[in-house]
Amino acid sequence: MQEIVTVIVDGIIYSAWLFIAAVGLTLIYGVMKIVNLTHGSFYALGAYAGASFTGAWIAHGYPPMLSYAVLLASAIVITLVFAPLIERGILRFMYAKEEVVILLITYALFLILEDVIKLVWGVDPYFIAEPYGLLGSFDVGEMTYPTYNLILVGIAIVAGGGLTLLLRGTRIGKLLLTVIHDPEVSRAMGINVDRFYLVTFTFGSLLAAIGGAFTAPTVSVVPGLGVEIIVLSFAVVVIGGLGSLPGAALGALIVGLVRSATIHYVPALELFVIYFVMAMVLAFRPRGLFSLAEPRKI
Amino acid sequence: MRLDTNRDRTLPILGAVLLAVIVFGPLLPKWALFLLTIAIAKGLVSLGLMLQLRAGLVSFGQALYYCIGGYTAGSLGRYFNISDMLLQMICGAFAAVFVALILGLLLARYRGIFYGLLSMALSMILYGLLAKSESLGSTDGINILPSTVFGIRPSQEWLRYVVIVTGCSVAVFATALVHRYLKTPLGRLAPAIKDNEIRVEYMGASVRQAIYVKYVIAAALSGIGGALAATAVGHIDPDMAYWTTSGEFIFITILAGTRSVAAPFLGAMIFEIIRTVAFDISPNTWQMTLGISLLLVIVFLPEGLWSLFGRRKAG
Predict the structure, then answer these.
(1) Which of A111, A291, B22, B158 is a good FRET partner for A241, with 20 to 30 A between their CA atoms?
(2) Which domain holds residue A126?
(3) Which residues of B touch A270 (CB under 8 A)?
């Protein structure tokens, strides 16, 4: 019993983290039809910015309880520096190209950003452990968890719930849905599609950066951080269906729980199982578990 | 796509390259021979990617077969004490083909990004398995025996030369076969599939079958490439199957273009040179150099560097 509880709690914490890291990918694909490899770069940028700003904040002796706000602020700042630059400077000229070509362009941008990170922050690892331990811990049965994990779950819920409300309940959301449905007609109707693309790209990247910033206290921030998160995020959003919000949540839950169960019972299959689930979903429901039938276009 | 038979000089060029390697090989320093060998290995994999790209398909998991080839070569040496390079390359190709014959049935139904994502998932599965299998060295990988050719073990002095001559001969042979294949009706279908699949079906050809065949050929080439890279480096590790390795191959293929079977090898050589030189000058910006080159090629030379050679086809 205890073991099952542990598996579930671990799985949920991991799912929350996965969801934050991956939901931006599905948002950007859903709106712009871009398979965005720079997502991993923004995750890494967020982690580096979070680690260095928060590190400086704590080193200056400012109140450590505010370090969570600093983590969030650093993610926002770093995204505002890079995301509009990439979208306005490069991507917007590429929208006419095929999906696969845009994928390659984001791959090139990913390579460039990898080295931008090295140039700005160097290759030495960054550590900020303070925010992780600050909140103490809570018990589930016999296991003790750092309360910090609840922040991750909270962010995941706020991000997912907020996005759903935004899309379903507001005027902006309705406009965005028309942009998704038909950018050309939306433009003809007087919707500023370019602005929606800019905001979507920035916001999607921001979610990745927040994921990175709030992961920074739990790991050592080293070069190459973004490489792994890309494939993981792909696995998550593909399982639920590219472009689907509830799909991303479901994908994160499936991957999170499956992974935590595997780690507890068959640790050797930890990596295998995630991609196995991804391949199975692609094999049987290529457009994800939440997909509808789609007519073949000539 | 210039494949007109009357002015086709591909085969003589391939022969000349092989001859040049044999003649000038002993004069080159060892590091250059190594670089060339790796370029040939990666060129083979990229040739396979090119076949798929001609039909409009981008595989983000070609590293799967590169890795299978490498690990087949490695295991032959480790468990069966077979260190013959030729045998390793042949077995690498067969192992890759065996897997591709099964996975191809599934992948031939996919297009666009789903083709890329599924192939990526499959190669990450192999990565996940290898990274956790202790008998094959986990993430550290394993070293493999120095190669022999026809039972002769070359001295340390000549090892690199023998490896490159053997590798180059096999590569030239395989490339010539691919060149012939591209002239068959099945090979010529690729651009048509890219343009309009449904018309191809109306013509009476099976798109799925054509893609299946390309997928299997690509796997064979990648298997050979993986085995060759493994013998040249003397070491294999699970990173051979990681998605960034597939990214390198895509980079090479896009850089080179799809106009000639020789293009991927030129692309691979340029890739290795950019990487070596950029890494030498500034170790922290070599990826940036690669990224910028890729961007420039996509924007300004959408048909790759090879389109710089020869006149553009009218129309």
Answers:
(1) A111
(2) 22-227
(3) 128, 132
